Amino acid sequence: MLPISAANQSAFVSLIMITIIMLVTLYLSMKGIRKPTIRKIAGLDAIGEAVGRATEMGRPIHFSPGISALGVDTGPQTLAGLSVLAHVAELAAKYKTTLWTTIRIPSVQPLAAEIVRQAYVKAGAPEAYDEDKIIFLSDTQFAYASGVVGLMHREKVAANIMIGAFWAESLLFAEAGFLTGAIQVAGTAQTSQIPFFVAACDYCLIGEEILAAGAYLSKDPLQLGAIWGTDYAKAIAMILIGVGIVLSLAGSNDLWKLLSGPLWT
User: Per residue in 113-150, pLDDT tens?
Assistant: First the structure.
């Protein structure tokens, strides 16, 4: 067994602690011993309103999970978007409302198609599933953006839901949705794009709100437990940062030595 270097010992101990915290919170949540709750998020609550409005108007819904690939640092935002897609598709199936899902990344298309199919099955309407409504447009950013804008205008969408990683195309989508009169729910963790969504959309999810969206909508104990565990891990990190700042201002670097030095020999 290879020895753990002095610089990595504290990281190893932190990993073990976080793993234990996650396992405990997952166990408590899945067994129903403790039921974590997530604060109200207006943007997610508005999804039902958006789908209902599209149903009343007899016009379709558009959904985009963003333009990020899965194997990069922004990939979790795409997964967050797909978790919201499952909820939107289930509502669309129940209300018999057309749902268009546009995809930029080829590897995301089969995932989105299967998620929508399973949502229709869960809603008891497998025959209403139309794989042609989950469309790959282009892996080029602005070619994809042009396709989305064109689709929203042609289909006159009444609800435009965008959850994921977006860049310069974000305002193009929001403006197109506004021109069609759609109710718009958007969310991203891309800080440079959040102001555009806030300004142009009816509801906006900011930053980590999109990562909690799947747990919030599904009420799945496994997902809720994971959110609960990560919150504890963040709290510990914030406490360590606070203690480190106070000690540093007091002229002590003991905490830094503890975290960066060897914990055992």
Answer: 999 999 999 999 999 999 999 999 999 999 999 999 99
What's the token pair of residue 65?
A: 């999970």
HSE (side-chain half, CA atoms, 13 Å) at 72: 10
The pLDDT tens digits for 19-59 are: 999 999 999 999 999 888 888 999 999 999 999 999 999 99
- Residue 253 located in a structural domain: yes
Same domain, 180 and 255: no
**Buried b / exposed e along 88-117 (16+ C-beta atoms within 10 A):** bbbbbbbbebbbbbbbbbeebbebbbebbb
Query: What is the C-alpha separation between 210 and 64, in angstroms, rounded?
Result: 13
**pLDDT digit string, tens, across residues 241-257:** 999 899 889 988 877 77
Token pair 């009169």 is at which residue?
A: 181
State how many domains the chain has.
2
The model carries a pTM of: 0.88
Distance CA 73, CA 50 (A): 30
Range of the domain at 70: 42-211
Does residue 265 belong to any structural domain of this protein? Answer: yes
Q: What are phi and psi of 94, to 5 degrees?
A: -65, -40
Residue with the two structure tokens 């943007």: 43
Going across the sheet that includes 61-66, the strands are 134-136, 99-103, 61-66, 159-165, 183-188, 203-206
Lookup result for tokens 């333009």: 67
Whether residues 157 and 58 fall in one domain:
yes
Question: Are 77 and 66 contacting, i.e. CB atoms less than 8 angstroms apart?
Answer: yes
Pair type for strands 61-66 and 183-188 = unpaired
* Distance from chain centroid for Cα 165: 9
